[in-house]
Amino acid sequence: MGSLSASLNIATQSMLAEQGAIETSTNNIANANTPGYSRQVPNFEEAGTIQIGTLTFGTGVQLGSVTSLRDAVLDLRVNQETQQQGQLNAFLDGGQQIQELFNETSGTGLQAPLSAFFNSLSELASNPSDLTTRQNVVTSAQNLATAFNQTSNNLSTLQRNTDLAVQQSVSQVNSLTAQIAQVNQQVVAATKTGENAGPFQDQRQQLINQLSNYIDVSEIDAGDGGLTLTTSSGSALVVGNQSFALSTQANPATGLQDVYANGADITSQISGGALAGQIQIRDQEIPSVQNSLDTLAYNLTTSVNSQNRAGFDLNGNAGGNLFTPLTQAPGAAASVTIALTDPTLIAASGTAGLGNTGDNSNANKLLALQNQDIVGGQTPLSYYSDTVFKIGNDVSSAQTTEQAGSQTLLQLQNLQGGVSGVDINEEAANLVRFQTAYQASAQVATVINTLLQTTINMVT
Amino acid sequence: MSVRLNPDLLPDLLASIQKSEQNENIATQELSSGRTANSPSDNPAAAAAIVLNHDQTSQDSQFLRNISALQGRFQVADSTISNVVEVLTQALSLGTEGANGTVSATDRQAIATEVQGLLTQTVGLANTTYQGAYLFGGTNVNAQPFTVDSTTGAATYHGNPNTTSVEISNGNSITANVPGDQLFQNANGSVLGALQDLYTALNTGNNMPTAVSEVQSALSQLDVQRVTYGNALNQINLSESFLNQDQLNLSQQENTLEGADLSVVASNFSQAQLADQATLSATSRVLSQKTLLDYLA
Predict the structure, then answer these.
(1) pTM of the model
(2) What is the CATH number of the domain that holds B231?
(3) Are A395 and B12 in contact (CB < 8 Å)?
(4) Is A361 in Cβ contact with B138 (below 8 Å)?
């Protein structure tokens, strides 16, 4: 036979369980706007049964556990997409700065000084003995050299700034991995004692997502609730409660900072996050543009010099170099300068001696360089035009990928929200349900209380 | 059970606000600059083509400047030759007058003096400069091309027989000068030689008819040589109109490459604005939407 006190016990247990459920809903509502928070659900369980004679009675309800709802696979996909977006955004950040140096539609770039230089030679050919015309050749050669220098210097500055950004990213990575190691340990501890590890997992996912902005992360489930984080090339970042800091070290050849993990250079292996984008800009994009500029500067000045040497100046002497001769293409754009300031030294004539000051045959040959394939198998302007195309195209395709990626990321985050996001209406409905159940249990307790009173009064 | 949707609508709404504001921005930029390509990445192929387009436009402008300088030079050269033709015509009539048997020796000598003056005048014309350079010295433009022996009247050419060629449009060159010896001391009729011979003939009274016919052939030879300048002037005029047309074509091409169709851009702008307002109004409604809690109280 069941007892009244057992019933009273069931009613109070039930009130406690509903109270816990109400607390869970309240907590969900409170955290509706907390970034990274996963909604929690109370898990009611049927309490054990009791055997009295031949009868089996239930002993009520108990709040077995509170669990956080999350989809580990979605978390992983969000992190991966974040890595790609981090890389693209960093690449675009640098790429847009590069392309502004070559924004020919708004008149910045090398087309104007290149054209002006050849135009001055064209004018020289039409009036070879005129000093003003000759001075104009010297001036436009000087302007061209300055334009090469400035563009190259701007690229170098951009490269140094990106190098600083790499170092900042590395220290962000280190600070995040240290925090993740700590939280990772808390997840393991909570999992061991059977507590709800959810809040710690929320925090950990939030931190890993932030880390994904900076570097490519692979997650390996350690089995005890903990995660092992490595870069996608396998360098350990977090193992258990330990984090492994990345370091930077200046490359003796370039002067730029290489990224090291546990003593190994992983600079070229980083494949995601802002670090990958910054390294791509610093080590590939800028050097490639710089290389194009150098090739252009080197080949153009070398050809102009050798043609000027082939002619004769206004004094009838053999011509010299118009630009200071460069020994090699690397660094050419940054170092090109003019070698002469005396306008009479421009070798317009093709014949030696003072009797040919009106001869323009060498000026014509200098001018003809404009249409000759002297730079990488192309004319100077076509080569430059190709360079502009490559820069624009790199940025443009990164933009396209970034736009598609941000859509994907938004969708993934929506899916994640579908699983883990707090819905106020849902919580309100639950609250009402729990409230009703609590009120019912309280009412039951009152009834039992009355019954007990009746029983007690029966005795007296 | 249906799929649970993300209860937080804000990220989607913010993304569409961002998108419509971005469109608005692009349209504003296109409206204010009049260009659809404002950065190389907007249209990489157009950006590359623009480089070549601007270069060609700038080359054309330079060709046009060269042409106007050449026009000046050719006009001076041509009018100088016209003056020489006048001098020769005058010499011819003086020669005809001197060849007349009725003219006395004294009168003939007076005519000879006149012819000597014409010779000096011709040499002066042959030494014409344009912007500090001698026009008729071949490529030796800084030395006086002709000097005359004051006693014999014989002229010496100090220039050279070289010509210069100047490009007046892409791949199209013209000869920019005729050397002085070819003009004034041509083997088929030397202007200076004829005048010298006429002077000697008038002084001595011998070989008068030969001297007169020499002047005649010098005159016709000069006409032949002068055609070079006339042709060159025609050629640069043709080039000039070609270059003007080419610049027009280039600017049309530039417009096709990067120019914005203003009616399209304006309609894009109002569309973007409309979309932006719609999104904003939707957002405000979502944000102020009542929840179940509001009805429970």
Answers:
(1) 0.88
(2) 1.20.1330.10
(3) no
(4) no
